[in-house]
Every structure is written in C-alpha cells, then in structure tokens.
Amino acid sequence: MNKAVQGPEVIAPPRWLTPVGWAALLAFPAAQITGFLISAPDRAMGNLQKIMYVHVPSAWVAMVGFFVVFVASVRYLWSRDLKHDRLAAATAEVSVLFTGLTLALGSIWGRPTWGIWWTWDPRLTSTAIMLLIYVAYLALRSFTEDEERRARWSAAVGILGFLNVPIVYFSVKWWRTLHQVQTVDVTGAIGSAYAISLLINSIAFMILFAWLVGLRTQLAGLERQREAWLEEQALSRSDAHV
Amino acid sequence: MSNPAVLAAGVARRFGRRWVLRGIDLAIQPGQVVALTGRNGSGKTTLLRLIASILRPTRGEIQVFGFHTIREGASVRPLVGMLAHNAGIYDDLTAAENLVFALRMAGHSARRAPISEVLDRVGLTSFEFERVRGFSAGMRRRLGLARLLLRPPRLLLLDEPYASFDQDGIELVNEFAARIRDEGGAVILSTHDIGRAAVVADRRAHIADGLLGEQAIPGVPAAGGQP
Amino acid sequence: MNAEIQRVGAIVWKDLTAERRTKANFNSVVFLAGMILLLFGFAIGPGGEIIDAISGGVLWLTVLFSGVLSFNRSYEQELENGALEMLLLYPGDRRAIFVGKLLANLFFVLLVEVVMVPLAALLYDLPLWAHIGPLALVLVLGTIGFVTLGTFYAAMASRLRAREVMLPLLLFPMLVPLLVGAVQATGGILHGDLMGSTASWLKLLVVFDVIFFVAALLAFEHIIED
C-alpha cells in the first residue's frame, strides 16, 4: 500500500525531458522571429501589438496548467500517491509564473494603448483573480509542514480553485457587460498572419511550459528521494532525529 | 480463531522530520490488558492515536479486530474508545450535555440513557448541570471516563489514565479496564506508574527510541510478541 | 441516513449552545459589523447619490469582513481541548461534521445580518422594508455560499499558525463571483433593476452555492483527518 516501505524510491528523470528542453530552446526564439517577420506591424498599434504573441499564449498555458493542477489533485486524493502531489505543486508554481507574466504584459500593453496601466477587462480581471487563488494555494503549501497533510490540503484547494475558473470568468464578464464598458477583444479582427504567428507562439509556449513543469517535478522528486534516503538513515540509527 | 484485538506490523510515524515511531510490531489478544510505558515524548500517545485510526501511519499497518485502521476506519471506530490527555470535553456545555452530545454522535438515542447513573459512578452527581468550564483536570477526566462507561468499547485506549486522578479515580479506571477485559475486549493503557498498572495489566510494552521492547517488571509478567 | 442527520443535529446543537452561553463572539462580530458600516460612511462622505450606487457593495463587504471572523472560531473550540480527536473517533460519516458546522455558522452569520442590515438601512437610508422579501432571498443565497467556503477553508486554516492570514487569503479570491452576484442583485433590488438582470444574478448565486457545497462536501473527509 505504501510504496516507501520497500526502501528509497528511485525517481528517474522522464525520458522526454531533455528533448523537450531542446525543443523549447529552439521553438521559443523561432516563434518570436516568425512573429516579427511574417505578420506586418498593426496599423493602429505598430509593433506594440507583438506583445500579444507573448501575452495571449502565456495566459493560455497558465489556464492549461490550472487544469493540470486540478487533474493531479483529484488523482492524488484518489491514490494518495505523492507523485501526483509533486506534479500539482510544480504545475501550480509554473502557472503562477505565467499568470504573473500575462498580467505584467497586459499592463505594458494597456499603458500606451489606452493610457492606463490597468483595465477591468473580463479576461484580465479573471486572470488576476486566478493569480490570487493559486498564490494562496502556494502559500498554504509553504505553511503546512507535514508532507502528507500538505498534499491533501493543497489538493482540495487546487480542486475548488479550478472549479471556480469558469464561474469567475462569466461573472466578471456579465458584470462588465452590465456597466457598458467596452470589452477590447484583442484576438478579434485578426488577419491570417496574426493567427498563424499566435498559433506558432502558443505551441512554443506549450513546449516551454511542459519543460519547466517537467524540470520542477523532477526536482521535487529528487528532493523526495533525498528525504527517503535520510528517512532510511534515521530509521536504522538509534537516534530518531534526522 | 478470532482476530487479535490489535495487530501492528512495522508501524512508523513521522511528524515533519522527526520519527516518533520507527517500527512497531505489536499483537494484543482479546482479554489482555497491556501497559504501555516509555519516557515523555517517546511516542506512547502517538501509538494510541494510530491504533484509534485517527492518525495514519507513515509506514506499516495496523488492524483492530481484523479491520484495517485506514482502509476500514469506519469499521474500526465503533469498536474503539479512548480516554485522551485532553478529554475532548466542551467547556461551555454542562457535564450532562457533553454526555448527550457524545451519545448522539455515536448514533445512539440520549433519551433513555443512564446519564445520571453514569455520572454518579464517576462521582460527578452534583455537577451534572454545571458547565465544564469550572471543572478541575481530574473532574474533566472523570467526565471523559463517564462517556466511555455509557458506551463501553471493545478496545479501550487509556492515555495516562492515572494522571490527575485521586486514589478513588484510579480504582475506577482499573475496575473499568478489568470489566472490558472480562467481557472479551482488550485494553492498552499508557503510564509512567507501572506500580498502579500492575493491578490490572497482564503485559508491559516499553517504547524507547521509537521501538517497542517488552520488559519484565516486578508483579507483571513480560510477554513476547505472541502471548 | 437517520443516524447522519442525528449527528449533524448534534453538532449544530452543540455549537449553537456553546455560542448562546458565551455570546462573546456574537457581540463582537455584530459590533465590528456596525463599526465597519460607520467607517464606510466616513470614507464615502455624506450625500445620497453615491451611497445609492454603492450600498450593495458596502453591505456585502461588511458581511464578508465581519463574518470571516466566525469561521476559525468554529474550529477553535474543537482544537482547544483535543475535541477534534474525539470527533474523528465517532463512528459514521465525517461529512456530518462539515454539514453541522456549516449550518451552525450559517445560523450565526444570518443572525448577525438580522442586526446589521437594518442598521445599514438606518445609516444609509435604504428602502429596506419595501423590498424585504427579495432582499432576504439575496442575503440567504449569498450567505450560504460564503459560509460553505468559509467553513471549508477554516477547517484547514484554523490548524495553521498563520490562521488569521491564511483564511482570508484562501477564502476571499474564491468569493469574487459571489460578491459580484450578490452586490449586483442587492443593488438591483434596492435601487431599481434597470437592466432586468437581478434574476440572472440570483441564478449565479444558486449555481455557486450548489457547486461549492457539493465539492466541499466531497473534499472535506480528506482535509479533516489528521
């Protein structure tokens, strides 16, 4: 039942990790270059519009990340296997990073476009709320010492947090519609060159995201392995302290 | 053959980085009273909580009357009664109300329960309708004992049952432990005071360094893993 | 099933009896709510139109900021004397603990609102009595969702050393849809529903309540064990 009983678990790095790392290293600059070369500067915004090639994909991968946290959390509670917890924690960290990036880029884009750093646009606002929810998730993890309790509690928070994603989005959207503030749809009115660049960038971001999550999960696995090794030491020594 | 009352195999428990228990093997048969000894912080309370199914072992597993404490916790809990250090009594309820609450939580009706009789047995008759807030430590533990008397468990876990009890209270505890034993249940009691436990205990198990050893003590025959 | 209802009832009875005996929490929460209402008044300044526009927001922020204090307290009495351990040792479904605590907290927060809302109406000259029925509906629906998540997150936060910080940190971002819906519905009821959207906001509150009640109920067993 408890896998740790058979001695220190050996966590090998997944075989896909290194190739994906290389792919990310190649795809990311390639996508950026494509973005600048194949799509002409926007008529109204000029090259400022290129921020969208980073802003939109990072929002998308963060959302995918929150879904991964949800699935991993459910699987942890189901199996009580800590590897799912490590995946959830790693994905949450990387997703928070990309959510922060999304917000920062949105701000940088908004300032010259609308003359303001922040707008209560539904997507931007929902993203900010998701950031708060998952920062709380990470804070809870850092305040909980016992690893098994931490895994259970943060899984619960990860599940409820994800259930809130659509509710937050639609409530904020209706709320803004009601106040008749124009929603600026940044993906609307797109040319095909724009769409292609966005697609390529999204794929590059996805690869980068997968690599970062894989790396972070692997690191957590190694930390666990070290713990397991220390546990063996402690259990076989006469002194029960690590 | 009936299941052992408690069967623990390789049980270890860690809190943060500290291993409180490192590998406990223990078998207790119905009809036995085991005295659990060890220094402060040696893990006596942790072991009792693990057996009661309110803690998960980090490693190893425990069965209580054949039921796995984690996978079949719902079957274990009705069999186990525990008198903890902190009796788990609510300060703002009266003594009688605390017992009514315990009965209802256990799924019993409180209507015809012998609450007054039980409070009389533990010497709290005149405090039946008083709030617990003013109770001394000894009175709280008497109330905790009353709760167990209302619904005698098959496996009785007593954590330091002799602490904060007077002579009369200690006799009450021993009497109750003997009754559970005679009815085919089992009792584990943790104590520093092996002399007092010697009256009822059949065996003594000693925890040191997170491991269990059985020692011979005057008046109590030591026993191996199997009696 | 009957045994579970009995357990839920026992928890509600126990929590409310303890609360009724001390009244310390009720008094302090009501006092705090009144103070927040006054402070909002000072922050906004006198004058009818602004108040009309934001009274729903003021009302709900006051509910949230004062109500949040009641959730950790609900578990404190379990942690004080090792009572949680006993609760976990009782046979039967541990979700009964959640439902019982939720109902006790719901009763408590609604009772605070019974004092607070008329006070708000008095201070801000709100047309309370003309709309008492619909307003009560919004308050109940909003409070159910608030208390459901509050009871759930406090089961974790109350056992942390940083409990005063962790509970709002976990709880408030989750409550954004509830806050938006409740404030819009309240505003619509009190000051005229120009867009005809109040019914939709009420539906949002119902959806929020149902989704999170079910989710919290299913997850509770995993967080209450030690």
Secondary structure layout:
The complex is a heterotrimer of chains A (242), B (227) and C (226).
Chain A: H1 17-38, H2 52-79, H3 82-114, H4 122-143, H5 147-178, H6 192-236
Helix pairs in contact in A: 1-6, 2-3, 2-5, 2-6, 3-4, 3-5, 3-6, 4-5
Chain B: E1 6-15, E2 18-28, E3 33-38, H1 44-51, E4 59-64, E5 67-68, H2 73-76, E6 80-83, H3 95-105, H4 115-121, H5 137-150, E7 155-159, H6 167-182, E8 186-190, H7 194-197, E9 203-208, E10 211-214
Parallel strand pairs in B: 3-8, 3-9, 6-7, 7-8
Antiparallel strand pairs in B: 1-2, 1-4, 4-5, 9-10
Helix pairs in contact in B: 3-5, 4-5
Chain C: H1 2-22, H2 24-44, H3 48-80, H4 83-89, H5 95-124, H6 132-157, H7 163-174, H8 176-191, H9 198-224
Helix pairs in contact in C: 1-5, 2-3, 2-5, 3-4, 3-5, 3-6, 3-8, 5-6, 6-7, 6-8, 6-9, 8-9
Protein model, in words:
The complex is a heterotrimer of chains A (242), B (227) and C (226). Helices cover 75% and strands 0% of the residues of chain A. Chain A has six helices and no strands. Chain A is globular, with a radius of gyration of 21 Å. Chain B has 227 residues and is α/β, with parallel strands linked by helices. Chain B has a domain at 6-89 and 153-214: Rossmann fold, CATH 3.40.50.300. Helices cover 28% and strands 26% of the residues of chain B. In chain B, helix 3 packs parallel to helix 5 (137-150) and helix 4 (115-121) crosses helix 5. Chain C is mainly alpha-helical and 226 residues long. Chain C has one domain (2-225). Helices cover 85% and strands 0% of the residues of chain C. In chain C, helix 3 (48-80) packs across helix 8 (176-191), helix 6 packs antiparallel against helix 8 (176-191) and helix 8 (176-191) packs antiparallel against helix 9 (198-224). The model of chain C has no long low-confidence stretch (mean pLDDT 91). Chains in contact: A-B, A-C, B-C.
